[in-house]
Amino acid sequence: MKFLFEDESFSFEALRAAGYATYAGAELGEILTTCRRIPDCDEQAWSAEWAGTAERVEKIGRNALAGGHRVSAREALLRASNYYRTADFYRRADPANDAESARLAKASQRTFADAAALFDIPPRAVRIPYEDTTLPGYLYLADSSGKPRPTVLYHGGYDSTLEEDYLALAAGALRRGYHVLTFDGPGQGSTVREQGLHFRPDWEAVVSPAVDFALALPEVDADRLVLIGTSLGGYLAARAAAFEHRLAACVLHDGVYDLHETLQAMLRNVGGPDDLAAHSVSVRWLVNNGRWTYGVADAGELVAASAAYTVDGIADKITCPTLVLDAENDQFFAGQPRRVHDALVCEKDLFLFAEEEGGGEHCHEGAIALWHQRAFDWLDTVLAA
Question: Can you give the pTM of this predicted structure?
Answer without folding.
Answer: 0.97
